[in-house]
């Protein structure tokens, strides 16, 4: 029997970027918030001297325990889904800060085209350009409406960058709070080559501070030291924007946040019309608690948001047969295969130094910046060179055809240790009717709840995108002048243990129509008005860019909507 606790105004499930922003904004407004996080508490002191590659990179210290909860995966409906036993493609965060603690820090805004993609595509190319199996839709919000929230996130996080004009990029109300990061030799090579080809390179927008910065909430952070320990690591300098060192401390300081760690929410309690609270388990003692609340904010990772709603019977599950229902619909990933690896003879770079968002990109092939009339795909890809920093373990990149072990492998590993880097691409992911999330009928977690099942494979849209973009990355590699160029020109089948991108979106998508979306533009559920589902699960498709700043902007808008709901009640649109 669960212990029933006193009712509170707001309970937030998950304390990463989405939950942290919502908690910060509500508590600053004087609203009492209970924040439930299944992992442990963290702050900047926990990251001191944490340059332990084995512990954090290879043993996933900051990640969800897959022996207790994971996902199952299959490529199509004819296959049996199997549990993901080891982290490959997805690295789901655990503990205060969530994925916002171990992310790299790349913070691109989405394009105006993204938010009105269906309308803009049909206006330029006609309705026939969109496949019947591609449930493409507008987001129910425009770039101009979300821009102030982008600005708020960037000021809070101290984003470093330079403004891009043209190419379908939206206007900015303010420049980035801090200037761009340093330009390394490999970035200079990319810059020269792409300018020679007529492209327009710019330094990546970065959550790794280029200079010391104090944000509007009074949080001061130091500049990036380019130590290379970003992805999968917390930042010991505080230079990387992280909810555990930005928004969550602000919420704690108000005295209005009751943060409960080691608290795993297993169900949203509801009467079929509204939520009444949540059920959670203390992961240390095994005790079960019922937390009643006026408003429930679901702010966990994409997979966990969808799974919690499905296990709670909230919303209408998506049905691929007739494309009805919304929970689980439009699961999207990202297309990152069209890259060209370059190896150099007699030329070395200091690749051991770097940062998670240190890099340079061209905007010429994103969104609808180029004509798609004769192309069999929509949207495009960012093409870039990044320097994350090559840490010593498991970093032996050698040319194709080199033996996988032995003296020749060792010699090649040493020879090219500082003499290789790729021209990368990151492509948009369009929705497909047979790419979705639902509950697995067979596998359950440690609490007896069904696991989430992912049905996903790359589509013809993705394969055509890779064919096109790979020609561009190869041309840039040739212009850079690499001695060996290995270009991946084909998109293979999706493999949950090998594909290398963690940008999952969709499943609880936003829109203006309750028939085709799960939440409105404030991320308020159509089917339960006191439930707000905040995170990248709201994206109806995934752009060519990293999702975090858009997730953050929508979180600020959701916090605004929650305050309105507590005062006025009812649907916010």
Automatic annotation (TrEMBL):
It holds the Pfam family GMC_oxred_N. It is an enzyme of class 1 (oxidoreductase). Residues 223-333 form the Glucose-methanol-choline oxidoreductase N-terminal domain. Its EC number is 1.1.99.3. Gene3D superfamilies: FAD/NAD(P)-binding domain. Residues 431-554 form the Glucose-methanol-choline oxidoreductase C-terminal domain. Keywords: FAD, Flavoprotein, Oxidoreductase. GO terms for molecular function: flavin adenine dinucleotide binding; gluconate 2-dehydrogenase (acceptor) activity. Belongs to the GMC oxidoreductase family. This is Gluconate 2-dehydrogenase alpha chain. It comes from Planococcus koreensis.
């Amino acid at each position: 029997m669960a212990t029933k606790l006193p009712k509170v105004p707001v309970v937030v499930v998950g304390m990463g970027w989405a939950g942290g922003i919502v908690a910060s904004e509500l508590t600053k407004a004087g609203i009492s918030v209970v924040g439930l996080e299944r992992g442990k508490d963290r702050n900047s002191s926990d990251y001191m001297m944490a340059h332990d590659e084995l512990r954090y990179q290879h043993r996933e210290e900051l990640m969800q325990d897959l022996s207790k909860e994971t996902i199952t995966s299959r490529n199509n409906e004819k296959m049996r889904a199997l549990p993901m036993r080891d982290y490959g493609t997805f690295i789901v965060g655990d503990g205060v800060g969530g994925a916002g603690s171990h992310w790299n820090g790349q913070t691109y805004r989405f394009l105006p085209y993204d938010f009105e993609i269906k309308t803009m595509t049909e206006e330029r190319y006609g309705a026939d350009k969109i496949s019947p199996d591609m449930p493409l839709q507008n987001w129910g919000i425009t770039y101009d409406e979300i821009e102030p929230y982008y600005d708020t996130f960037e000021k809070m996080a101290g984003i470093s960058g330079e403004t891009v004009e043209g190419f379908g990029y939206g206007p900015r109300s303010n420049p980035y709070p801090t200037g761009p990061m340093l330009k390394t030799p490999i970035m200079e090579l990319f810059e020269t080559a792409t300018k020679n080809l007529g492209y327009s390179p710019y330094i990546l927008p970065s959550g790794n501070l280029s200079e010391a910065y104090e944000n509007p909430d009074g949080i001061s952070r130091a500049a990036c030291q380019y130590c290379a320990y970003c992805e999968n690591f917390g930042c010991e300098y505080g230079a990387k924007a992280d909810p555990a060192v930005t928004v969550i401390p602000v919420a704690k300081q108000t005295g209005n946040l009751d943060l409960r760690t080691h608290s795993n929410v297993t169900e949203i309690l509801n009467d079929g019309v509204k939520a009444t609270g949540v059920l959670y388990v203390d992961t240390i003692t095994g005790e079960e608690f019922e937390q009643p609340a006026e408003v429930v904010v679901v702010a966990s990772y994409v997979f966990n948001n969808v799974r919690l709603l499905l296990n709670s019977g909230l919303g209408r599950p998506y049905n691929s047969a007739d494309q009805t229902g919304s929970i689980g619909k439009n699961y999207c990933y990202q297309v990152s295969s069209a890259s060209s690896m370059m190896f150099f003879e007699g030329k070395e770079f200091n690749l051991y130094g770097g940062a998670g968002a240190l890099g340079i990109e061209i905007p010429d092939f994103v969104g609808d910046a180029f004509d798609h009339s004769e192309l069999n795909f929509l949207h495009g890809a960012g093409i870039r060179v990044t320097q994350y920093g090559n840490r010593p373990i498991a970093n032996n990149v050698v040319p194709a055809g080199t033996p996988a072990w032995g003296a020749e492998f060792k010699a090649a590993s040493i020879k090219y240790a500082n003499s290789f880097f790729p021209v990368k691409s990151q492509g948009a992911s369009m929705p497909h009717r047979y790419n979705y999330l639902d509950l697995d009928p067979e596998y359950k977690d440690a609490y007896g709840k069904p696991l989430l099942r992912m049905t996903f494979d790359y589509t013809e849209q993705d394969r055509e995108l890779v064919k096109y973009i790979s020609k561009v990355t190869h041309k840039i590699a040739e212009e850079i002048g690499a001695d060996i160029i290995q270009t991946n020109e084909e998109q293979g089948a999706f493999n949950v243990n090998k594909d290398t991108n963690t940008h999952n979106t969709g499943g609880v998508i936003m829109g203006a129509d309750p028939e085709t979306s799960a939440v409105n533009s404030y991320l308020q559920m159509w089917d339960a008005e006191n439930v707000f589902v905040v995170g990248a699960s709201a994206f109806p498709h995934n752009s060519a860019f990293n999702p975090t700043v858009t997730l953050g902007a929508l979180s600020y808008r959701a916090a605004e909507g929650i305050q309105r709901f507590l005062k006025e009640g009812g649907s916010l649109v």
